[in-house]
Design goal:
With 450 residues, the protein is of the alpha+beta class. The chain has four domains: 99 residues, Trypsin-like serine proteases (Thrombin, subunit H); 107 residues, Thrombin, subunit H (Beta Barrel), CATH 2.40.10; 89 residues, Roll (Pdz3 Domain); 93 residues, PDZ domain (Pdz3 Domain). The strands form six sheets. Strands 24, 25, 26, 27, 28, 29 and 30 form a seven-stranded antiparallel beta sheet that branches. A six-stranded antiparallel beta barrel has the order 3-4-5-8-7-6. Helix content is 18%, strand content 38%.
Amino acid sequence: MLLCCVLGAALPGTSAGAAIPLAVDGQPLPSLAPMLEQVLPSVVNIYTEGRVRESQSPFQSDPFFEKFFGGPQTQPRERRVSALGSGVIINAEKGYVITNSHVIEDAEQISVRLHDGRSFDAKRVGVDEAADIAVIQIPPDQLQAIQMGDSDTLRVGDFVVAIGNPFGLGQTATSGIISALGRTGLRIEDYEDFIQTDASINRGNSGGALVNLRGELVGVNTAILAPGGGNIGIGFAIPVNMVGLLTRQIIDYGEVRRGRLGVIVQDLTTELAEALDIDATKGAVISQVMPDSAAADAGLREGDVIIAVDERKIAGASALRNVIGLFRADDEIEISYLRDGERYRKRIRIRSIEPPAGQGLQISERLEGARLSDIDGDSSPQGKRGVRVVEVAQGSPAWQAGLREGDLIISVNKQPIYSLEDVQRAVEKQASMLLLNIHRGESALFIVIR
């Protein structure tokens, strides 16, 4: 009772005397509010509806039965799905909004809600699933575009603010710092060069804005590392410079038309540098030059170490892959590389990234039902070669033999495989039986087809 009376008596005086001042020594206290007032109208909430086709196994996914009966046997059924996310207005005059491709995946209807409460139906302009970027368009009715920043100038420790629509609550701003730059190897996307931040990013923030304290867009929020399902302070955003290059292609062509250098590379290690007799600690070592590629025509060789592209330093295999992935087919680039301890520069015109695809039946009746494709040397798993199994029809000879979508065929009848032509030649030499060496995820196996 005495304590309560004391607290009660102290409250009036404390409230008046300890109120947060508006200024200290005549200077206003720092606040993010003025910046956010300028930025929030440029960030939108996105809601989608669509349908997906799915199969239901009569064995209810029992692995014992599916091992012998080949998985789901029933006809696919459709299920309606809805999703939510965020987006950023980048062009007010034409109504262009950027978001993540996974936000509008399978969407038949896309709705965009603005900061002022207005809603519009949006149309899809194009997507790039490899980098998880999409562009949609809404009516250009009194829109406000965000100011674009320069992600190449970011430093670890810079303050940033993430803005989006977490859990459908509506526009929400969270603050933090840049925790790391150039994050790769996360297996979130095919092309990764993420900004890592501890600003809270949650479900629904995807496609939203990561801005600096000047209110400039420096990244597009994409993913979080959440082992327990919630935010633990590790979020990832796509750098705005990468976003800008990709969105220009999407707006121009409806897709990203990447170029292809035609090499398979691996990170430069201390041991490799010593063996190659070069004085460098970072770079991408060419382990294979693809036949009839831009790299082959330019005279690049196995053992060359690429250290820069258009004066942009290359730290390793992932960095080279990301940089090349930003150029369009027929773009001319300057490659700086080391060979036998000497540094060279060469102008190379990269080519279209359109690997030929073929039906397995065209190669052998034993591969009927499989669709095969050459892998792109610039985006293949590090140091790997082979032919990718793009699709396998259930119940087909290829399916019954054990081939599955995503398999990487690295040899046929003990012959190394680099292209579809290699598969054809290996089959022609011994058509009675096929011995396939397969890489599947992190494992490897042999498949015999008679």
